[in-house]
Design a protein that fits this description.
heterodimer; A: about 180 residues; mainly alpha; 6 helices; globular; B: about 190 residues; transport (chain A); transmembrane helix (chain A); ion transport (chain A); transmembrane (chain A); Cation transporter (chain A)
């Protein structure tokens, strides 16, 4: 995309998408607001919020970037038996199974250092790992759907897919964390 | 290439970036737990947190990607002292758009929460906090993104793979940190008035 490098042209290209994404993120804020009292009572859960949505967004954006590159190189086909596609999907789930236990234990350790963990490390670990696995599966689904849509509508996946995937994974991160807290806490 | 090979390669390439942003996210989370008093004092602020953090990623991630592409194409030199006009325009546009999106998020959160009948702080307080936090973290992020992309490029690293993890990590940490600074500042100002 060849935008001229002036404040006006960059703003024209960026601002509408940015404001739309802000509204999407506000949705995730509203979900967060709906379990505000639980988050204040159990600070460890509050500590999980940025890292869970950040990691979910990163899983999605890394997958999107890789699929987008494969797509540009012409090595990607939308077929469940495609090695590139299946391998990347498997890797996303494997990454979440690696990272989210560290997320849970790390959040518990750090909040116990600054004083104030009302939850056991196992509860936090369960909440975090369960959220992580569900999020990985959702991130794969959203990324594949967005990349496929970009391909069908002949849009450059670099421009469209990554912001879309990152922000919807942010929202899904909060929703899944909320569900997981309701089940396990 | 088998599915296993593709998976192993994707896993190895992604893990370092995820670990880096994990550390940033955890630090941001701890700062956020230290903000509980302020979050209670300013109802509606928690609802703003994801939008404010995402704005940092969206705006400065895009600035980083833009600079990385321009370096690849030879449009700009990897040096700040050159005082490139285009670089200044891109930085100014990022900062301006980041501030607009932050203020917009604050106003929208206020309207939605009012419509839902939830308790919410005055719109001026929310906008003040969002804009001040956006300005402080924006200035730091512009400096960090430009420095790291240039330094990485000069050392022969692909700036494209540097931008994402750096923006998420520093964006989370400075986003929450300056949010804390902004809340305390705005609350102190409100008290004086």
């Amino acid at each position: 995309m060849a935008t001229e490098w002036t404040v006006r042209d960059i703003t024209r290209a960026m601002l509408p998408v940015l404001l739309a994404l802000t509204l999407v993120e506000l949705g995730s804020g509203l979900v967060l607001g709906s379990f505000e009292s639980q988050l204040y009572r159990y600070p460890t859960l509050l500590a999980l919020v940025p890292v869970t949505i950040g990691t979910a967004g990163n899983l999605g954006s890394i997958l999107a970037a890789r699929l987008s590159t494969a797509f540009h190189l012409g090595t990607l086909s939308f077929d469940p038996t495609d090695e590139e596609l299946a391998g990347n999907a498997v890797a996303t789930v494997a990454l979440s199974v690696t990272i989210f236990p560290v997320v849970g234990v790390g959040a518990w350790l750090l909040t116990s250092l600054v004083g104030g963990t009302a939850l056991s490390v196992w509860t936090v670990l369960t909440v975090s790992l369960a959220s992580g696995v569900v999020l990985a599966v959702l991130a794969v689904a959203v990324t594949l759907a967005a990349t496929y849509a970009a391909y069908r509508f002949e849009l450059d996946p670099d421009d469209v897919v990554i912001p879309l995937v990152t922000n919807s994974c942010d929202v899904l991160g909060v929703v899944v964390l909320f569900a997981s807290v309701q089940i396990f806490v | 290439m088998t599915i296993r090979d593709a998976a192993v390669e994707a896993y190895r390439e992604a893990l370092p970036a995820l670990v880096a942003s994990l550390v940033g996210g955890l630090i941001a989370g701890v700062v956020l737990t230290g903000m509980r008093a302020e979050l209670r004092e300013v109802p509606g602020l928690l609802v703003l947190v994801p939008a404010l953090l995402a704005t940092r990623g969206n705006v400065y991630g895009s600035l980083g990607a833009r600079i990385a592409t321009a370096l690849h194409q030879g449009l700009i030199e990897p040096s700040v002292t050159a005082g490139d006009r285009r670089l200044r325009a891109a930085a100014a546009a990022a900062l301006g758009n980041g501030l607009l999106a932050s203020a917009f998020a604050a106003v929208a959160a206020f309207l939605v929460l009012t419509a839902l009948g939830s308790s919410v702080a005055p719109v001026g307080v929310l906008v003040g906090i969002a804009v001040l936090a956006g300005l402080l973290s924006g200035l730091v992020l512009v400096a960090v993104v430009i420095t790291v992309v240039f330094a990485g490029y000069r050392r022969g690293r692909n700036p494209d793979t540097l931008v994402g993890p750096i923006v998420t990590t520093t964006g989370d940490v400075f986003g929450v940190l300056f949010l804390l600074v902004a809340v305390r500042t705005v609350l102190a100002v409100v008290e004086v008035l």
